[in-house]
Specification:
Oligomer: single chain
Structural class: mainly alpha
Distance between the termini: 50 Å
Number of helices: 70
Strand order of the largest sheet: 1-2
Shape: globular
Strand content: under 5%
Number of strands: 2
Largest sheet: 2 strands, antiparallel
Radius of gyration: 38 Å
Length: 1309
Amino acid sequence: MAPSAIPTNPTSHNIASLLPKLSDPDSDIRYMTLNDMHAMLEIGAPTFLQHDYTVCAKVVEGLLTTLTDGNGDVQNMAIKCLGPFVNKAPETILCPTIEKAQNSIDDTIPALAVRAIAVALPHPVQGVARTAKVMEAYNAVSKALIPRLIGKVVVPIPNGKSMPPPPKGMLEVDLETGSDSNSLDLLVEVARCYGPMLQAAEVEALEQVSMQVLESEKCGTVMKKKAVTALAALAPFFNDNLLAGHVSYTIEQLRQSHLTSQQRKLYITVYGSMARAVPQKFGPYLRTLAPFVLAPLSEMELEQQGESEAEADGERDTEMEEVREAALVAIESFLQACAQDMRAYLKDVTEATIRFLKYDPTLADDDEEMEEEPMEDDFDAEEDDFEEETGFEDEDDVSWKVRRGSAKALHALIGALDVNDPALYGTIAPALIARFKEREESVRSEVISTLAFLVAKTGSSTVKQASASAETNGVGASRKRRRGGSDVLLADVHGATNGYASPATPPPADQAGQGLAGINPQVVNESAKLLKSSTPLTKLNTISLLKDMVIAQQGGLSEHADIVLGPVVDAMKTANETSSSLSGNALRVECLILLRVIAEHHSSKIIAAHLDRLVPALVSAASDRFTKVSSEALATIEVFVKALTPPRSAASKKQNSEYIDQLFEVITERIGSQDADTEVRQKAVQALGLLIGRTSGSAGGKSLSQQNRFAGQQLIADRMKNELTRLSCVRAVDTIAVLAQSSKDFKPGFVNAVAVELGAQLRKSSRSLRGASLSALRMLAVNQAARESMDDATVKEVIEALLPLLQEGDLHMLGPALIILGAIAKEKSKLIATPPVISAICNITSDSVAGTALEALVACVEAIGKAGAGQPLMAALLKQGTQGDTDVSGRVIGTLLVSGGSSVGVKLDSFLSELQTQPDEDKKCLALSVLGETGLRMGSNCPLTPQNFIPYFEDPSEKTKVATAIALGRAGAGNVTTYLPQILSSMSQGRQYLLLHSIKELLQHSAAEEEIRPHTSALWNAILNSGQAEDNKIVSAECIGRLAIIDPTAYLPQLQTFLQNPSPLIRGMVITALRYVFSDTSSTYNPHLRPLIIRILATMLADTDLENQRLSLSAFNSAFHNKPSLVLPYLADLLPYAMQATLPRPELIREVTMGPFKHKVDDGLEIRKSAYETLYALLDDPAARQYLDLPAFYSRILAGVSDEHEIRILACTVLSKLLPLYPAESARRLDPLAQVFRGVLGTKLKDTAVKQELEKLAEEQRAVIRVSLGFQKVFGGDGESRAWKEFWDGVKREFGVMLKGVEEEGRER
């Protein structure tokens, strides 16, 4: 039948018309007939065969006939048809079909045929209710498939009917003959598809037959490996008794004296597989099992083997090598899946793995002594071995597998040990370095990768420690409130991370860092030898190791650059000339990354001596036709530009100009090259912007000629009009503007041209382009050198482009736009003080603006006032009056009043008069806000006194009272000596709530700590007394926290004492105050906090009050985020509190009656939410991740996906972080992930659900699909779990539109 004859809606008659052709003598016709049948079965309606038993019976007979066909393609197509057929056929035909498939055909096909049926049938999915079809499918498997597989009825038929005994089982036949009929593959599919529904007796029977295959002398190695897979597939469904019995039986077998090496290997292999399959259930048994797995790796058995081989005239026992390899693989699984349960054996594991890392029985006994001697002579003799890479001539030698297994086990061991464990650098690292001379390629690569993992783990800890130490030892940042963000934008933009001759490598901060520094010379020397005479793969791994060394130490090659840089450049050349394109490109990319980190983490003096080789190599790589190589080369060139230009290269004078010119030429060539990829051109533009920026000023001009600098600027201006390079050019202009030092650094007309073009980009739809353009305009405006280069016409066009941003209400765009206007107002205030700009500012004050946008608004108004152009703006603001937010308007007017002085046309007395005579409360509030801001800015020069404010506490309006309190505090922040005593005196007369707000404003805005210090004792007592009222708790906590920062010696110990107070209200206030203390990023009081922080955190986390528990977790999160160096040493003691808090507590769930409905309220929800936020924060810190019990951590995150809405969203975000950090653990969790994700996506709301519930569910489903897409990209290959595959197929089928939207979001980011 031709494909065109296949109907779109086939019926049973169409299927019946095909059956006669299955007996056609032409195999091609039989094949095409089966192909057409398969197509019809696939597209047919689910019930189109349900009621035609006759046709179904004939189809069964026809398919069984073709299963015995002599043509292999026909057989395969018949097997392919079985799957869709059993899904469309009546359920009652399943058992006969399975029985006939097993009884009627040759031994080579039945298992494949029945496996196709089992896989295609509906099977249970965790988290989804089981349908009638699933139950029917399981009944068929239980009644027909399992008995036929093992040769006996395991579960009796419920109705008591007696059935004839099944024929001999397929696995029984395999056991007798020793042949592999693929029956074990069928058993594995039964376990994977129907494991949750299998009864205990069925699981036990399948386990027993798998063990029989494992122990059979007739069955071959392939079958026994399949038996191990079968046991691992069954393990999740073992009950406790079956698992205990299985472990006990295998232990007894391992104790038998007549146990063969092959059996021992298999039992150990089973242990490793089960540890991966059911780590939490299997882990407790490791206390008993681990010694049996470690026994083959003991010194005693190694000596016994040597004696036995000596008696056998040196004949090797290769089976024992396989046992050892299996033991090492099992240990690796134990350490990865059950690390906590293996802690008692870590010392034994270390000794065993190191012992067999150097295990090489083909070498003479005295070779161990040679290992301790210098390796130079030996290494040269082995160069030929490295080049040929043919391994040993002895083909029977498999000891290299043992050494490779040891290296992999060491990799897992390093992951399980604490980074400061003495064994890491005292024992493990030297053993790994000693094996750099390994002759087997795969072993050598594993050794280098394992050492690189150790280095990276150390680096993740020591870098954090070093940065924290630098913060602690540095000068604390001022806590003064910054006004006018534009003034600080250029702070330190010309600073350099490394000087010309200053050492870049910081001293080791902990034991791990000291250990890494100790092995650094030896690693560098041995790596240099490998780079000179090894294979491309070894060179690649070695380069990667050196890169990790440099990153971990933030340097480390200062004394060894001579022996590293040359071989690296040579490796790049040889990779380009001799290696295949794939391996050669990978090696060159890794070399370029290494050169980049060397230049980034070392002083310019170190690389200066090697520029004659490095720069040509970079130029050549940048011109490479392979995009990845060229792109990495340009990224490396950027770092070299920083190293070769001032201020880092200030001492080099003109020595680097030749190399700068070479880099300039290749960069500009790549920008203009038509055959270069878009990514390459974008990277080149970025590098050009940096090069032009770094060569600004008198010092930089010596490195690159003005002609080249101007040519580069023109090239950027031209390329900004090209859509493909526009965004890169905008960012390049930003860089040039940041680094420019005078107007002479710009080509005439360049600033005007790019400013106009940047303004035009603000109208584009791309948010990233608009944001980058606004940032570049901000830097052009803030940098005086660039601002002076803009003419009036350009400024007008820029202002017109900014006006829409002032009206859109986008706070992210509003702040930078106001900063630009404020910067321009310094010299060209008349162009700013125009009706459109004034109207826009007034519109902004009508909204509740806060944060950086408010600070930018105030800075802009201040600049206008100082320029003497504030009168029109003041008139407009006063005309608007109370129509806007009175607090924002008051701050703006007060700022303009002080900065503009007499030029604004209004005096302070006008607002005093307004306050005294105006009956309207809004106008009073506005006047109070203006007076408070004026007092803050004028300080001691302000004529206002506390008596100008205090009478208005008696005003009948609550709004006026609060405005008075805030204004009094702000004015007091400008003149502490006058205001604070009066505020304290007033607190004794009542009005504590209002005066607490005054104190809060005063402490928040004042930088006069020395003036506050004499009053801290009185403040402390007054605040504590007032804070015992519920309404005052939050404000009091902020004030107490501020006082503790001002005088930590006096008040931090008192805060610790108050944590023991019997009143939960006071404890809560103190915990909130500590959260405020922890959130202050200044390090000036860290020495006072360090000895107290563990006791403070432990006490507050152990609080029994629910609200205090939530506050404690929030404070812990704040402490970890802002004071990591203080918290990390005690994280192991604090983390269990957060883990425990993620558990739902049934006693906190109560039922509330709301009219005719009953609603459940979970009082523990906020606690769990805070706990999950803390766990999320821990993942951001590499050092903190070392303290995680990963299996338990992952389990809690999985549980969070099934929790309430806020926690679900947060748990999905955490899973997105866990995926790249822990891919192995993520792979093991695919099945439970599929279950919990399916539960969220399968949630059905009632018909009466409100809009908010629908939106929440949609958000949850999008979050699940987003994280599922990430997992699918990583694990979506052939090796994915069946449960995950079915889940993902369901997502594509049922949530296709939402999935497409999520994919588009990912592409836009």
